[in-house]
Amino acid sequence: MPSTQTPPLTGTAIDPPALRPPIDDAAIERIEPANIHSRLTELKRDGFTMLLDLGAVDYPQRTPRFDVVYHLLNLRQTKRVRLLCGLAGDDPKLPTATDLWKSADWAEREIFDLFGITFEGHPDLRRIQMPNDWEGHPLRKDYPLRGPARERSPRPAFALKSNVQAGTPPSGRTLEALQRQIAKIRGEDASK
Amino acid sequence: MSMTTSPLTPEIVSHEGSAMVLSMGPQHPSTHGVLQIMLEIEGENIIKAEPEIGYLHTGIEKTAENLFWSQAQTVIERMDYLAPSSNAYCYCLAVEQLLGITERIPERARQIRVLQAELTRIASHCVWLGTHGIDLGALSAFFYCFDMREKILDLQEAAGGARMHPNYLRVGGVQADLPSGFMEQLDALIEMFPERVRDLRKLLQANPILQDRLIDVGIMSQDEAQDWSITGPSLRATGIAYDVRRAFPYGGYEAYEFDIPTRTEGDSYARFLVRLDEMEQSMRIVKQVRDALRPGPIAIDDTKVMPPPKETIALSMEALIHHFKIMTEGFRVPPGDVYQAVEGPRGELGYYVVSDGGNRPYRVRTRPPSLYNLQALKGLAPGNLIADLVVIIGSLDPVFGEVDR
Question: Is A176 in the same domain as A89?
Fold first, then answer.
């Protein structure tokens, strides 16, 4: 049986991004969830015309628990900005950015799917990577590496193994009986 | 939270009047993988297209969090399976920034990495061109492309030991030096390349059928491209000369001369031409690297990151200990976060990597160019015919290992 336990966290840092001055070429800003939409609008007006990516990180030992990370790009001045937005662990919510950039659509759906963070005002917020009936949010740190065993999605009945029977040798039978036997094996309901 | 919808029937869209809903894929030869598109059509005209992805979701980001820093690279290479070295390159650069050893990577290692990245780009574009041709019924180009790609895969196999996923680049350098005979093989490729691209151009570029199918199909304006976060050749086909290699140089790309091919039409034919030109520019870089290569160390001289050479562990106690520690525990990376991007064959490939100071990545978030490029299908497809949708998907060049991860 595969283990359902995650390996222990090996590091000690609770808030890694806060520990170190920026080491890449992006300007970093920390924004409160209430101000994120106005800040994004402002940055877009100032020439950051591309929302390159939208990701999230889960820090279960920290308050706020989640970081939603916006990567913005200014094409004209070739500058990057990274916005980090901390979110509380219970019922995490953010306003959507789909009204500013269409590209935020799938990125926000992915965060909703894998982290359980809701984006208010998103036109079509549903799971994108996991099946629609999946339970839990796999990229959260408290979600095990191997999820619980789960019943398979229903398959059409003819594919089930129990429907396929090994035929007995046809010696001493009429042709009609043989045809019925074959039809039964194929899963057609001819036996009644 | 649970929803009761069956995964076999994605919910879709209102349909009114004479429109019907058609599910294209997930197993359809022209979708280049497992893509399902819910189409709302009226006759042959597309009114709305809603791509459904996730059929190839394998949880690579989650898996990577549970592996050592060096092991995680193995699964990360599997994301964009047509350009494994680009993924590995970007990940290595990100981890090196966190470790603070970017400046200490030896020159030869940097050159070999650039060489691998550019060869990978050519190989990836070969697959794109071949399959794009097949979508349009141009079969012969496929064989020319895959023949050339095979030559590049042979080079990757010679260097890293495997054709598809060489796992040749390492945090701190490359795994081993280029083997003897590599240069001769590379020279043969460099020599055959111009003629082969000329053949491909003759076969496809001026072909009136191909032009009929591509020109003015799937037109994207500069504003739309930015709105959908399009990067790579598809963005440059609209006239924006954004290339990560030029805008945010990394890994020694400043040293090489190359042009950024652009077009202004923004249609499928422009994307086609930009990629063809890019192959030639990549070969230009390959040639420069080939001439600049000098003997030297191929990995950082730091046994805390890179295991010491195998032959030394029988001779030195120190080397044995370091080797054992790295193989059993991996190396530790100081806490912090970093965003590193490279110009992959499909656009800006970015990694947002967070370390908590441990021997496993705390979080590896990929910015997959294919995901964003493919998403634009929602805006590009309506108003076109179903047959043109095939062209548009091909011209966006999505790779589903990367879209679904």
Answer: no
